[in-house]
Specification:
Layout: E1 2-8, E2 11-17, H1 21-41, H2 47-116, H3 118-125, H4 130-190
Helix pairs in contact: 1-2, 2-4
Subcellular location: Cytoplasm
Organism: Clostridium aestuarii
Keywords: Cell cycle, Cell division, Coiled coil, Cytoplasm, Septation
């Protein structure tokens, strides 16, 4: 238990409390300033009247702080909900990117297959005349070239989607970090004693 002697409006008072002496002096200084401000505005007031008005002002500030605290609690709850939503979106986008990358791998594998062995197979399987084989090869070449171009287009589109999804993930992660920073700021506003250096 700490005991300190403080001066409020020229009179000395003994205060006891579990808090540090610096804190008790700070409380007394706050009350002293409130009473002094009221007496400066109306020097005809008695000390007891000034003390009552100072108490009313302090309670008014306390009630406003309580209202602010409730409002901050609501903001904190809303920020937590938004954080959960953003985290879910980030996870969903990561899964989507993984699926797109797997699909892109399959398309590239198919593209390699069309480049390598398919034309040779057509020649080896046939017992047709050279002209017939040449016609088949031409048709197959056209078909495979078309497939190859289609695969390239799909591959290009998928790469774009993967890149776009990565940017979305980065954006969501940045928004998540900003949300967490806002949450810390709100918590500091909610408990101003965290900002006081004792």
């Amino acid at each position: 238990m700490n005991r300190v002697t403080v001066r409020i409006n020229g009179s000395e008072y003994n205060l006891k409390g579990e808090e540090r002496e610096e804190y008790l002096h700070k409380v007394a200084g706050y009350v002293d300033k409130k009473i002094s401000d009221i007496l400066k505005k109306n020097n005809r007031l008695s000390i007891s009247d000034a003390s009552v008005l100072a108490a009313v002002n302090v309670v008014d500030e306390l009630l406003k702080c309580e209202f602010d605290k409730e409002s901050l609690h609501k903001q904190v709850d809303e920020a937590k909900k938004n954080q959960i939503i953003l985290q879910t979106q980030v996870e969903d986008l990561k899964k989507h990117i993984k699926n797109l990358e797997e699909y892109n791998g399959e398309l590239q594998s198919n593209l390699e297959m069309t480049r390598n062995g398919e034309y040779v197979k057509q020649i080896e399987d046939g017992n047709k005349s050279l002209n017939e084989e040449l016609e088949i090869l031409k048709e197959n070449a056209k078909k495979y070239l078309k497939e190859r171009n289609d695969l390239k287009s799909q591959n290009k589109e998928l790469k774009f989607q993967v890149q776009s999804s990565k940017y979305k993930v980065m954006d969501l992660q940045n928004r998540l970090i900003e949300n967490q920073i806002d949450l810390v700021k709100i918590k500091k506003k909610e408990n101003p004693l965290l900002n006081v250096n004792p």
